[in-house]
């Protein structure tokens, strides 16, 4: 009989905090600049230089910890993690070891319509390393490598989960919800492609019912949430096959190969290092006043889950709608601003999730660029019968592109609704005369034929006629 | 009296009375350097042009009637582990032999703002690891009192520069005695300030939790004047302390009558040279005659101090020196791959004592040994602090010998690291406790060498140390100002 296994996953997330300057010096954190421009004696680790805390980084780190329900420690400490690597200017990374900034915490995620709590081990601050560019594939087989220290010293927040995750999909959902939360706090831009959010995973399998943890494998180099899911699914299969064949898992560090879609064990000495942690003597222990922590807590914005509940209760939205509007903080802000002036909330959501999001995608614009009042104006024009639905859709596209008011666009382009027999009958007569076959079909009982005739007239009116009114008129004529 | 024989305070007075120009003073010291430096080898880098340029600028400003600092125009030399913008800073190591910092250490900036001409960068033990300057990668500095002997270390070059009249003042750094021990061997005032009193920004780190910059001077007044310039809070050094800085020279003449003085039993040990101990007791008796209360005090943790120090300092050093990998600056020996580049660069770049300490420190921090070594040493350090706290409940000042013997011979201890380490035995525990400590000359040994007495005070009491040193300078038997080494034609032999 084939043995069944449970999957046990823990994640380590590294997050670049959105501070203007680096964690221990005044250098800029701007991404994508000429190499080795944003550097000074401190972040280059020149002899004699010393680190000084960036207060903003501590504020952001504390707010993330609080948003994750993690217990912020009034006393924490920085330690040196010693190892040799060319991207590490001082031969050690200033990090936190046994006295992290915050302990514990959790994030609730929705998994298969159920709420799951993923518990956290810790949240701590550390400094970013530089970036290597190899002439070959890796530092071990390149004739030379170049180092860019622009990134060195940027404030990095490490979030470590407990081994509470049980599948690749769950890991992905956790990361998506975590990103939403982090974007709400404004602590990071969470761009995996720019490396401002990175994720490593530890994964092991154990027989169903067993409580002992199996041998774990660390997976690195996953550059998207999709890659995390795929890499972990791959590892589950790989480990399952080994275990089912009575084999042993080797504790090692693997790279996810995005092209081959497989995990590949790392060469070199990584993973077996002794980092010789000891307290950083150049910094005093970090002491946070209770009042400072309270202040950061008070400054926290409403978080996605709270907002989701409020949207359901206050606006009467269903779960799907509330999720859509809270996944993205700015979309929710847009909705709320529009809902101030328009009380059919469900209808508002329909416009947002349908046409508005479609037009935003088409035009490449972001929701922050759209004035919420304009959408309300558009819906009101339609509701009042000033324009037809097809015209409304066309106007929305125009409005998103140009930012012009729908009212003005109607006037400029003469898109107001055409109504009244005196304007519509000539068009109806013309269509009836040109389509005798359709008229005949309708008379034989083919209801659909009238829709065809309505469509023809609509086309002639440039979409400005009201289809319902037309339908009545046409039926009256040919019945 | 030649200009180079004068104290910094005297030179300052001459400047203020416009009796002499800074350029004349600098020239006098440059002449002196030319004469004696070939025989003493105290400098790694000479900066005569820079010194003259600063002196000239100061003279112009003074002529134009500008109000200047009393030490403006007074030349100085600094230990070669303090970064100087655009000027080679080597730490007496091959690995930094051609390193030119792009920035000034905080203290260097302070000296420049005052307008003190820099005469050069002084020799030292490589990365400040040593007690004799014999660990310099370049050459050994000689003691002007007896050129067969060491000047002490690691700030040996700075001590020699002042004691041989090559500069009236110098800066050194003290991690576990590296100012006080050479001050004692060369007959000078040398102060290790309270940890955090002087910014470490730009001081190339040996052991970060212990390193402190301090002055070498001929008199307490000169030391106090220099401390006024370098002491104070620096936002760039997170371990620097915000307490306000008193006017050190102003307090010098205050009364020292009712001091409660504790003689540290371990620092007047019967194992020490009896003349050294006798000299300490002589100074103590001067204070007693003046109304001080004298008693003996034991600091029982002293026995463990040396062991704790030689774990903590190398542990920090092993990490601090990790950055010398040849990637960004300094010596690069090349190699077939990154691993061999690292090991070849460091293998060639560091001397044997530095390697020894890196290995000791790496070992002490390693998984499985951390608790037994580093952590245990940190516990001892906490207890040592408590020892001092208890002692300072009873005493205002603790005294003892600065060193167990006067200067030893060159080569005498190079084969026995432990014997070398023991020459700092009196300077370790107060450094571990972060306390201010000063060596004051207490007389000449029958062999003609200077001896020192060490005064240790509670944190931030540098003023008290200067005051007592100043009092002793006036009351003790006069000491010869200069080493009585005959100058042959053209300089020392």
List the helices and strands and how they pair.
The complex is a heterodimer of chains A (479) and B (493).
Chain A: E1 5-16, H1 55-67, E2 71-72, E3 75-76, E4 79-82, E5 92-95, E6 102-103, E7 106-111, E8 114-127, E9 131-134, E10 145-148, E11 155-161, H2 168-185, E12 197-207, E13 217-222, H3 225-244, E14 252-257, E15 262-265, E16 278-279, E17 286-287, H4 290-299, H5 304-315, H6 319-327, H7 329-339, H8 345-363, H9 372-383, H10 389-402, H11 406-413, H12 421-434, H13 436-443, H14 448-461, H15 467-478
Parallel strand pairs in A: 13-14
Antiparallel strand pairs in A: 1-11, 1-12, 2-6, 3-17, 4-5, 4-16, 6-8, 7-8, 8-11, 9-10, 12-13, 14-15
Helix pairs in contact in A: 1-4, 2-3, 5-6, 6-7, 7-9, 8-10, 9-10, 12-14, 12-15, 13-14, 14-15
Chain B: H1 8-16, H2 22-40, E1 43-46, H3 48-63, E2 76-79, H4 106-114, E3 118-122, H5 156-163, E4 169-174, H6 180-186, E5 189-192, E6 212-217, H7 220-230, E7 260-264, H8 274-289, E8 293-297, H9 302-320, H10 338-349, H11 352-365, H12 371-394, E9 397-401, H13 417-422, H14 428-432, E10 437-444, E11 450-456, H15 462-475
Parallel strand pairs in B: 2-3, 2-4, 7-8, 7-9
Antiparallel strand pairs in B: 1-3, 4-6, 5-6, 5-10, 9-11, 10-11
Helix pairs in contact in B: 2-3, 7-15, 9-11, 9-12
Describe the structure.
The complex is a heterodimer of chains A (479) and B (493). Chain A has 15 helices and 17 strands. Chain A is of the alpha+beta class. Chain A folds into 3 domains: 5-296, no CATH class; 302-413, no CATH class; 421-478, Arc Repressor Mutant, subunit A, CATH 1.10.10. In chain A, the strands form 4 sheets. In chain A, strands 1, 2, 6, 7, 8, 11, 12, 13, 14 and 15 form a 10-stranded mixed β-sheet that branches. Chain A has a 3-stranded antiparallel β-sheet with strand order 5-4-16, with no helix packed on it. In chain A, strand 14 and strand 15 form a beta hairpin. In chain A, helix 7 (329-339) crosses helix 9, helix 12 packs across helix 15 and helix 14 (448-461) crosses helix 15 (467-478). Chain B has 493 residues and is an alpha/beta fold. In chain B, strand 10 (437-444) and strand 11 form a beta hairpin. The longest helix of chain B is centred in the C-terminal third of the chain and has 24 residues, at 371-394. The two termini of chain B are 23 Å apart. At the A-B interface, loops of A face helix 9 of B.
